[in-house]
Amino acid sequence: MKNNSQSDRQKFIRQAIAIAFILQAIIIGLKGNLDVQSGKPTLDIIQGMIFQGIELVLKANRSKK
Question: Region 5-33: what's the mean pLDDT?
Answer without folding.
Answer: 92
